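Renewal narrative, Specific Aim 1. Our central claim is that a sequence can be written position by position from structural information alone. The example that follows is taken directly from our test logs and has not been curated for this report. It begins with the structure tokens describing the chain, in the order in which they were read.
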């Protein structure tokens, strides 16, 4: 039971980390595009 919970926790943590990385990437792209368009 504990092992199952640990695996689920790892999956959730990995997906959260993935969403965070995607969010940062989108923010960087958005900032770059905005700087390029309104320079």
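The sequence written for that structure reads:
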């Amino acid at each position: 039971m504990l092992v199952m919970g640990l695996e689920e926790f790892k999956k959730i943590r990995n997906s959260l980390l993935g969403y965070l990385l995607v969010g940062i990437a989108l923010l960087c792209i958005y900032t770059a595009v905005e700087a390029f368009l309104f320079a």
